[in-house]
Amino acid sequence: MKEFNICSVNTEVLKEIQHKIDFKTKPVGALGQLEDTARQIAAIQNTLEPQLQKPHVLVFAADHGIANEGVSKYPQEVTYQMVLNFLSGGAAINVFCQQHGIALKVIDAGVKGQFEAHPQLLDQKIAEGTESFLASPAMTLEQCVQAISQGAKVVTEVHQTGCNVIGFGEMGIGNTTPAAALMHVITKIDLEVCVGKGTGLDNEGIQKKLHILQEALEHHADHLEDVDTTYEAGAAHFLWVLSTFGGFEIAQMVGAFLQAAEHKMVVMVDGFIASSALLVAQALHPQVLEYCVFCHQSDEQGHAKMLEFMKATPLLNLQMRLGEGTGCAVAYPLLQSAVQFVSQMASFESAGVSQS
Ligand SMILES: Cc1cc2ncn([C@H]3O[C@H](COP(=O)(O)O)[C@@H](O)[C@H]3O)c2cc1C
Ligand SMILES: O=C(O)c1cccnc1
């Protein structure tokens, strides 16, 4: 497995930027979470003059064997079709990226079917979909390790273009099911809390999804008993969990999160599925969380608890439940506001305004 070298952010800068923020012409703390975000970005960048450059969203797409068990409201071919939609500019993520000047790349991490070459599409296909984890591991350990390094590689390429702020999205019909499994195994939160409606299952559909997950956990129970999800237990446990229950887009996002933190990039975190990849990433390297701005709380029912587990306070709660990185794209202007008030607001002294 690729080694990641992730340092903690500079906490000295946190104190100094706080001082700078407190001398801006506003009551102390009045910009709320924008102040927290500004402090965090300053600490990540190790500067009192944080800046955002060349924002990117990477959408990782892949298919899932478990989708054949009827865990989604939509058919599997939607994954392939939506990739084409991303490439022709018609998806929600295209619209929001266009709106905010965010560059968008689409990564085929393991979609069923072949695509023609396209300047926005990267071929990082591990295989044409995972196996159903109802009866076997979703992927081999080798595939899992390969996916992590592929996800890392694309982030390094984007970083080399001068990008210092990046978000990860996903597309993969059925992928709220592996995300729920990862959440349950890593957080030990009751499976019922981790399972939600995804693309819009009704109650009966959610019960079926829950039963399939229970059956899958039962199938892997012998191994699961030996799984130690404490940090000290080491990477092998988490790699087993990720390869057994994950997906190729999820595993590539694990590598992407870790690599972005190694490059000291500001990392925008999207919804339930992206956060399930981050759960694995933070289990391997807890410092990755210091680089993460949690963009929104998804309406998928497990997300609130998942965020709580990572002690995260999301910027937005718009009852969105789409994925694709849309939470990152709509929250990006807030990150811009955070860095711009630091650089552009007057101080009490420069504006001649009296302090308390
Ligand atoms: C047209 C369409 C576009 C999407 N864009 C993201 N998702 C989202 O829905 C899927 C997860 O939900 P589930 O586990 O219930 O299948 C993922 O592809 C996710 O990205 C979409 C889903 C659909 C149908
Ligand atoms: O929060 C998400 O990422 C999400 C929720 C439901 C369906 N697709 C994605």
TrEMBL record:
Keyword annotations from UniProtKB, A to Z: Cobalamin biosynthesis, Glycosyltransferase, Transferase
Pathway: Nucleoside biosynthesis; alpha-ribazole biosynthesis; alpha-ribazole from 5,6-dimethylbenzimidazole: step 1/2
Listed EC numbers: 2.4.2.21
Catalytic activity of the protein: 5,6-dimethylbenzimidazole + nicotinate beta-D-ribonucleotide = alpha-ribazole 5'-phosphate + nicotinate + H(+)
Pfam families cross-referenced by the UniProt entry: DBI_PRT (PF02277)
UniProt KW Glycosyltransferase keyword: yes
UniProt cross-references to Gene3D superfamilies, sorted A to Z: 1.10.1610.10, 3.40.50.10210
Family: Belongs to the CobT family.
Described purpose of this protein according to its UniProt entry: Catalyzes the synthesis of alpha-ribazole-5'-phosphate from nicotinate mononucleotide (NAMN) and 5,6-dimethylbenzimidazole (DMB).
PANTHER family on file: NICOTINATE-NUCLEOTIDE--DIMETHYLBENZIMIDAZOLE PHOSPHORIBOSYLTRANSFERASE (PTHR43463)
Name under which the protein is recorded: Nicotinate-nucleotide--dimethylbenzimidazole phosphoribosyltransferase
